[in-house]
Amino acid sequence: xxxxxxxxxxxxxxxxxxxxxxxxxxxxxxxxxxxxxxxxxxxxxxxxxxxxxxxxxxxxxxxxxxxxxxxxxxxxxxxxxxxxxxxxxxxxxxxxxxxxxxxxxxxxxxxxxxxxxxxxxxxxxxxxxxxxxxxxxxxxxxxxxxxxxxxxxxxxxxxxxxxxxxxxxxxxxxxxxxxxxxxxxxxxxxxxxxxxxxxxxxxxxxxxxxxxxxxxxxxxxxxxxxxxxxxxxxxxxxxxxxxxxxxxxxxxxxxxxxxxxxxxxxxxxxxxxxxxxxxxxxxxxxxxxxxxxxxxxxxxxxxxxxxxxxxxxxxxxxxxxxxxxxxxxxxxx
Length: 333
Known about the structure:
Helix 7 (203-216) packs antiparallel against helix 9. The strands form 5 sheets. A two-stranded antiparallel ribbon has the order 1-10. The chain has a two-stranded antiparallel sheet with strand order 2-3. The protein is α+β, with helices and mostly antiparallel strands. The protein has 9 helices and 10 strands. Strand 2 (143-147) and strand 3 (153-157) form a beta hairpin.
């Protein structure tokens, strides 16, 4: 059991004197969700921060920003091992990084052409911005001219991989998908019965989530963003499909859109919400776990609310915790 300790009165808060931090961030253009890079020696580069928070990078989709920031951390890590800052990169550094990232036997986590091309696109965006504003002398991403499908000439990175596979899709029939859910998520055997040695957890939640994505065609991040209020509810009059609404802030196109889920899947989600999920929530409430969260949002209104663009149909309390995410030595949070 943790022991409660009374802190001495002379202790100073780590944010003492920074009570107006949110106002300062807003003044310089730093918004919630913007990545901030931290170097291995715990420095923040003001030029990189300006790029990440106030350039066209800030208008990219959230997942794209996260992926690009991962790519920046990897390349900056590589440069750091050579005693270089990000603004000192040369074309030779990039070619050596390409060799290490995609072909070197010394790298156990080599990537394919498509993943490498994503990183090149990220670096191209950064260094073109930096060159235009004279923060770096030369762009380490060399360019070459290619002829497009309609005969037009355009510039592409010379380091761009030619063997990139744009898709790794493997098609499944509905029957094969149901078998995958039963075996992989519910722990059933080939005979369709639960395996006694199955050690998985939350089978009803995982199966309901997978079935909801399969039935509606939602992306993974879209389905994961749904509140219980946004999942359609079964009606007494029945129906084969039910409509729900995705908030614009969670869609890739940044436009709110309607999704449809089958009645079977909607019933499956309701069953999970009213059974195992309800038990977990009740146990957490009884233990006062929600009260200890550092951040929380409580909604009291019905109808459309402005938080995260959600459209709600009843009153619900919503809780969340924000955590910084880090990557290797160059980190972003």
